[in-house]
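Q: Structure for this?
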Amino acid sequence: MTDLTYVERAARVKLMIFDVDGVLTDGSLHYGAEGEALKTFNVHDGLGIKLLQESGVQTAIISARTSPQVIKRAADLGIVHLHQGGHDKLTPFKALLEKTGLTADQVGFIGDDVVDLPILTRVGFAVAVPNGRAEVLERAHHTTVAAGGRGAVREVCELLLHAQGTYERVMAQFLV
Amino acid sequence: MTDLTYVERAARVKLMIFDVDGVLTDGSLHYGAEGEALKTFNVHDGLGIKLLQESGVQTAIISARTSPQVIKRAADLGIVHLHQGGHDKLTPFKALLEKTGLTADQVGFIGDDVVDLPILTRVGFAVAVPNGRAEVLERAHHTTVAAGGRGAVREVCELLLHAQGTYERVMAQFLV
Amino acid sequence: MTDLTYVERAARVKLMIFDVDGVLTDGSLHYGAEGEALKTFNVHDGLGIKLLQESGVQTAIISARTSPQVIKRAADLGIVHLHQGGHDKLTPFKALLEKTGLTADQVGFIGDDVVDLPILTRVGFAVAVPNGRAEVLERAHHTTVAAGGRGAVREVCELLLHAQGTYERVMAQFLV
Amino acid sequence: MTDLTYVERAARVKLMIFDVDGVLTDGSLHYGAEGEALKTFNVHDGLGIKLLQESGVQTAIISARTSPQVIKRAADLGIVHLHQGGHDKLTPFKALLEKTGLTADQVGFIGDDVVDLPILTRVGFAVAVPNGRAEVLERAHHTTVAAGGRGAVREVCELLLHAQGTYERVMAQFLV
């Protein structure tokens, strides 16, 4: 796999895994007295995830933090594979491979911090956000132009659609 | 219509339709455990919409997402034409033409994402925000300088006032 | 008064009036289902207002919007002159002059939008924020470097302290 | 101590004290009708503080404002030394030295405003954020690249880890 371009890697992805804080958000944690009260997502990312699902790619979330806001957002977007909680991301990653019957080469991941490295160094298509830590950017196959919470996820979804030749098909519904 | 400048197009607008997420907001979705808990609008946009109404132009909102925050904001701004819900924006657009008795040439629209294309490609004056998707910017007659949620709507309202020669009249109240 | 520099104008100020949206905030309106649920102020601005008060300058807020968040913020900062509600800002401005026994020359004001012009064009020291509308910046004696909600108010408070020669005195408490 | 580089100063730190507003946040104060309803922290900062603790450095918060959100955030991050309330930061600082049995030379502090100067001018390693006031930046031994609420605290935590030679050890857990 080491000689593949990132577009060739994107073309093989059957399951895309998203980190939450710093990727689906800009890393802000809005605390009330009881802990996180709000989480700020991005509307463009949401449509990107839906279009990616329509193209036939599965979607998942693996996050180190646990929050009810993520459960609701995942439900709104039809993301069925959701794992929250714990700095050990490797165990849920392996469980997800087993559940879906996919190999790591068929999986994409987008993350931003060092807790993401155990997944990021194993998947076929590893993506970082520009607001990610240096240790992550150095090890990713690709870094998005848009920052987390500012369209990074939409960008990677469109990249997958283009790489897999499904972009025109899912866009057709809007060109009526 | 194809040879008109965007200012000539703006001069004909009798009804201006605003998209919400990414246009009246910066695209952030603030989730609580039950879904969207807050929506962040812009104070300058609000005054722009009021001034546009004072000049005689009708205003409307068509949004793919449903949120009680938009209902309240529309009420505060006196926007009577409000349609929320569903990625099909063409049906409410056609219903709005029928309700107002206007032709598409007399309608302006400002949007940011591909779900907006069915309206954007039909109206007489199609505006994009700079934070919009490339597919939208390519098809708009004009793109604002200010981003969504950061004054894009105020800018388009003032553009309409200038194009229609009503700017001086509505501003006079503040030059006392 | 027309030949005075803005520093000379600042030196005469006995009462400083702050606009809220776009000045004490960045212009964001965070709506819940019942209207504005939150207002985002800036911690540096708060300390600036307190230091200005310690120097002997009176402080006031005149805002076109009504919100309980502003009442609470004004109370926390010890701002006793608070007027909220209505696009007519001239009436509360005149009432404030009468209440304090000051002339307009002894008053400073910082604003951002056209509803502020009736006050801005009357005071001895008129300040705009860089995120303000062009009509406001053109008529102000001075424009801050920092934007509204990002330290503009702290900047104008320190400008007054320097112009009035009270900066060293109020800062002394922190140089222990 | 006056000839030490900031890295040599960082190497001696046994206790790191964090200011809250403008350092662990970007200085925004989100007010509801009852006062601060939310405080916005940063996910990268949180992991930085945890890694610093794992390396053996103690952590503390001293803040001029009192908020339940900070109590919750400190609890989530395992910060046991927490003092909130009052512009006098010198008294809790001295109490903290007594409680921990450390000298000021063994303490680091990161702050942003003039109320922080009494601590900042006494500690062995004084850090400012770039969004801090000029009076603070002038007196600090070091200023972070990242702004408050945008990774300044993560940056200073990693600086301490590198200066103390513990970075590789705490990072090893993620390179599995």
